[in-house]
Each structure stands twice: as structure tokens, then as C-alpha cells.
Design a protein that fits this description.
The chain is α/β, with parallel strands linked by helices and about 260 residues long. It contains nine helices and eight strands. Helix 2 packs across helix 6.
Amino acid sequence: METRPVKWTVDGIDIAGELHLPDATGAAPALCISHGIPSGKPAEPGDRGYPGLAERFSRAGFATLIWSFRGTGSSGGDFDMAGWTRDLAGAIDFVSAFPGVDRSRICLMGFSGGAAASAYVAAHDARVARVVLCACPAEFHRIVVEKKADFSVERFREIGLIRDKGFPRSVDEWAQGFAEVTPVRWIGRIAPRQLLMLHGQEDDLIDEEQAWRLFREAGEPKEIAVVAGAGHKLRLSDEAMDIALSWLCRAPLASR
């Protein structure tokens, strides 16, 4: 298995990532893993983060791409939900052009805010063959209203996701990005590509009803698994990630 630091540019912003390449010969399926919106809290003890997750899927034969969306990690720019969808589209461009990747088997797996971006991009990009949505909100508005999550510019500036004092030029336009990417608007357009939804029974941020609402709106083929004992950070659940890996390995490609 080989790990390469990579980067691509979107909207003039450098997006930094890692490509984890499997040992197997021949064209490998690609998996683009999208992280969620950072909360500013420190990582849990023993948490290897997304590199550990990428290694797991790479060992199973996937050319696995992880990266930091704009405004996070070592990528440039400022947090912008609409911009995240363009960053993910850039990730698909990158893996599609990478030697040894099977362009007919490009898969997306997103977590929380990254799941929302994944649903939006899959609905708009026919190159996507399979999608795994983990702890995906149906609507961002419900998280703000019901869970009192702070999605303000001030909060994101405080935790370092918005770095430029002049960003955004229009708060209304920036906020509209959340409305545009709202997953319940787009999930029905993923079909006939395969869709798997995973949700933690103990998720304290996105209630289970939101997962079932998305599932009802999605077209076939689709599957859902609610994982007992799992919280919002589903990448920390071995059971959830076992389900995702098993499904990605067995799901046949849809005709497009």
C-alpha cells in the first residue's frame, strides 16, 4: 500500500489531500471520503482520523482519496458549504485522471456535512457509481433550530474555519449555500446509482427521523442501516465501517 500527498486547485484555492493506493494490480475502484464540518473540539483519544480510515479501505482494494475541504486542515480558503461541493467535484476530477483508477467505479463516502456535499455532487455528476452517506442531515436548518448548533460566520471564524477577515462578502449568499446543498432536495436524483445510508442510533446531533426521511425520498436501489450504540462520528464505529466496506465490495454497478 502506498500513500501519496496530493493537491488540486478549485476556485484558485489549493486543496490538500492524501491518496492511498492499494497493492493490487489492475484498475482499482476509487473511493472519495469527505469529512464533516469540524466542531473545534479535540480528537478523541486513540482516534487515527481519516488517514486510518483510508488505510482500511485501501487495504480492501480501493484507491482512497481523503482531503481537507477549503477552510480546514492544510487546505486554503474559507469554509463555504457551496464551495465544498466544488472541492469534491475537483476530487472526482483528480481521481478520474489518476493512472490505474477505474473511472467506471468512482464511489463517494461522506460524513455529516461531507455527506451532504456527497449527496449534492452525486445528484449532479454521472461519474459517481455508488454513494455511502453517514450521519447525513436531511436539512441543516433542523440542526440549527432543534439542536441549537451554531452555524454562524462568527462561530466558524472563532474555530478557524473562516480565516479571511473580508470573507464572506455577502453573509446572505454564504448562508444560501446551506439551503442549496440541503440533502433532502437532491437525494432523489442519485438513483439509479446505488445508495447506502448509515446512521448511529445514539447520534446526538442528527436524529434518526432525518435519516428515514432521506431514505423515503431516495430512489432505488437503496439500503439503510441504523447502527446500535453508534454516535454521530460513524467512522469510529467498526460495525458501521464494516457495513460500508462490505456493501461497497458487493454492490453491483447500476446501468447509467
